[in-house]
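Continuing the series of single-chain predictions for the mutant panel. This is the parent chain; the variants come on the following pages.
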Amino acid sequence: KISAGTFGAVVKDKDTGQPLILSNNHVLANISDGTDERSKIGDPILQPGRYDGGTDKDVIAHLERFVPLYKHIGLPSCQIASWFAACCNMVLGFLKPQYQLSILRKTEKANAVDAALAKPLNPDFIANEVFELGPVKGVKPAEPGMLIKKSGRTTGITQSKIKVMDATLKISLGGSEIGVFEDQVVAGPMSEPGDSGSLILSEDNYAVGLLFAGSNKATVINRIETVLDRLNITF
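Parent structure:
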């Protein structure tokens, strides 16, 4: 359902040692909160993705698990809210046909990561290194002013510097849906659509974070320590 994104790195399940592919929830799991049926464990993962010409013959992995993504403002799951909106739109159809009413749901839950894992069909299909950057040497905490780099599907290898730590932001999740993200790292611009899921590395190839959002002004990054903890994985 998601047309393009980046496989960030090969990681290992802490309990089994199984090699897995790390990326974003919104790349591998369709922005799912785990209850909305947007995705399910075992969903096929394509390489290349649909946008790049991938078909059902290009399945490289299946969705293994993900951290739920909570929407601060999103579409309601309540039948009463949906019924109310439908009734109002019937009336609007007669009075103001150019308008449409939408009922949106608010939640107080915040997110720390946008992260998910895929299990490759065959371990030989994946390489334990970041494309054109090499193996991941370990983990380093993000620091203000740190020079970072990534290898992404759209813009390839780019660099920037970390500008802000411990940020809380509202991020568009598509359409009218918005998610609140806490304890985020913000760097300068270094990505475009399709780069989501890229692993953020230090100059000397230590993992620093997971890229999940960006614009022409900034890049938003999950702390890698939190990603590893929430998914129970290691490099």
